[in-house]
Amino acid sequence: MILIIAEKPDMGRKIATALGGFKQEQGYLKSEHYYITWAFGHLVSLAEPEDYEERFKMWNFDDLPIVPKQFRLVPNKDTQKQLSLIKKLALSSSRIINCTDAGREGEAIFRYIYEYLELRLPFQRLWISSLTKEAITQGFRNLKDGSEYDNLYKAARSRSTSDWLIGMNGTRAFTTKFGGSKNVISIGRVQTPVLAMIYDRHQEITMFKSRTYYTVVVELQQQQVNYSGTLHIDEPITEKLTVDKIAQTVQGKIAKTISYESKEALEKPPLLYDLGLLQTEANKKFGYTAKQTADIAQQLYEQLEAISYPRTTSNYVAADNLAVMHEIFDLFKNSNYSSFTINGDKCYVNPENKNLCRPDKIEDHHAIFPTEKIPHDLTKDQENIYSLIVKRFLTHFYPPAKYKLHRILSIVDQFEFKTNIKELISLGWKIINEEKNNNKNTEDKGDKSTEDYDLRSNFAFNEDELAVCTKANSKTIETKPPGYYTEGSLIDAMKKAGKHITNAELKSEMSYIQLGTPATRTEIIENLKRKQYIIVDGKKLKPTDKGNTLVEMLRNLGLNVLTSPEMTAKWEQRLSEIAVGSASDIAFSQVVVKFTEKIISCLKNGTSTISQAKFMNTIGNCPKCKNQSIIAERFAYLCTSTECDFKINSMQYGKELTSKNISDLLTSGKTNTISFKNKSGKVYKAKLMLDAASMNGKLTLEFVNKNIKR
């Protein structure tokens, strides 16, 4: 018999359907030649410090750093039964096929099980990018030897152990020095630099001083066309009186063209989605968090088999994907998306199209695109994400959008005015786009001067014809700070982490380096929220007092490298090199251990006047003991006093409370009106009331629309 191990039960059942002939057993599926069983994500993880020595149960700074000579693996909670089943089936098998997700984390899931159970059977690897029946059967015809992925496992394990060393030691060190039992100060190899990015952006906005300057905008009229122009000067004008005089001078005067150039420009379809780009655009368009988008994409892939593997880092496909893309395009001709295929042509999806086909840009998986299985009855959220993916896919069956760019320099009196016109010649792929933007992220723009073009059609300009200045107005321009990160723009910034490196030499060498992976970026953001380092204000990500204090302290202690993408970016690059066999995992481990020792040394020898209170996100005074403050923990808001049991659970009546809600309760005894949902999904509005009599943190509802029952 051959044992197949899938990552999740659902994938196991899909494999059984593709191969055929299976019957259900207790915890597994069986056919004439195969057993199929599964993990539930990670069944096994790296052991906690106390698993090595009992004394590590108590957090003590003097025990640090904790550096295991050999990292151990332990079963996760409630997984022993499944591990025993896998062991039993393996003993009745001649070999194993690893069918976990085709990526670094999927490899780790299988290898940790294999290592923990001390299996010695030969194993093969199924490596596919979609879960359709065709893709699975094709993958089984092309199974790889498991040893081909040894380096990928080394990279996965190196990532886990480096995160363990930095996280376990850093968190224990800072918590014992500055935190406490009710205030864990979490440190992470990737998490902390990402927090610093949010902190730095907040500081940049807070410290920003707006500058005001002025210009003149004119309307120029030829016989066949009118166009606007902006005063062309070398230095900005800071006196409004100056531009007012210019406007008065040029009003009604003749304009002569002193230079004119035009050229054709092509705008290619936007790149296919990787997970990060999908998260960025879904956040911008639908307001989804990174986690929501990742979860929805996983549903479309795993449950509905409607898209290819979503946790990819690539925006390109390989030549052998093109034939199936042609087939999928034909299928969409008889779907709800048929109107977007009418003028499309498969000739544009070819190996010479470097905006699409770049095998050299693919690591594990190609870009996300729809599969042959077109789904029906999607939820609204699933439809939103699926529609983004389908439309992006279909744009590549159209030619580039074509424009004619006009650059005009006019002189009126003695003053020059510049005009930039973008004349639309043909829409090309943009016939699919419902929006007028060019897929540019404008939420994150700071004080950057960009040359804008006015979009026009049928711009019949004659450079030899004089024009009349029919209108001239002064215009006030105020510089603006950069925008706060949103989850979408933060994901994008993590993908471009190399650009945040301050060292000029390293910046040029490492401009392509990324923070985290598609599989980890979502969880990093969620961790920062759970650990109260950041809050979400609308779409804006802002650091809390706790987050601000941590970044400032790390920099004061000389641990700037923990708050910069530089070190983490270097390590991510090294992990990528380990995965392809061009770097040593042993050498990497030695570097991580030395850095861990440096963290402890800096804390041991450094001095700081920052108190524990600085690391607490204090929301208000405790209404019960009156002596201490209320702080936010992961699942509750509670008193900082070890002798006071006042606590308000974060989740109330199906709604997660915000710090603002708690502040209102502490100051006035009630919240503002909040929207809740009852069990049938109907929305009702109510205020939460603090039970002042019992002082146990119990909250009751004061209904606003009393006709709807909870």
Automatic annotation (TrEMBL):
Any one annotated GO CC term: cytoplasmic replication fork
CDD domains (alphabetical): TOP1Ac, TOPRIM_TopoIA_TopoIII
Pfam short name (any one): Toprim_Crpt
Domain Topo IA-type catalytic: 149-600
UniProt KW keywords: DNA-binding, Isomerase, Metal-binding, Topoisomerase
GO molecular function, one term: DNA binding
Protein origin, superkingdom: Bacteria
Catalysed transformations (reactions): ATP-independent breakage of single-stranded DNA, followed by passage and rejoining
InterPro entries tied to this protein: Topo_IA, Topo_IA_2, Topo_IA_cen, Topo_IA_cen_sub1, Topo_IA_cen_sub2, Topo_IA_cen_sub3, Topo_IA_core_domain, Topo_IA_DNA-bd_dom
Top-level class of the enzyme under EC nomenclature: isomerase
NCBIfam families documented for this protein: PRK07726.1 (NF005829), topB (TIGR01056)
Protein's name according to its UniProt entry: DNA topoisomerase
Species in which this protein is naturally found: Paenibacillus xylanilyticus
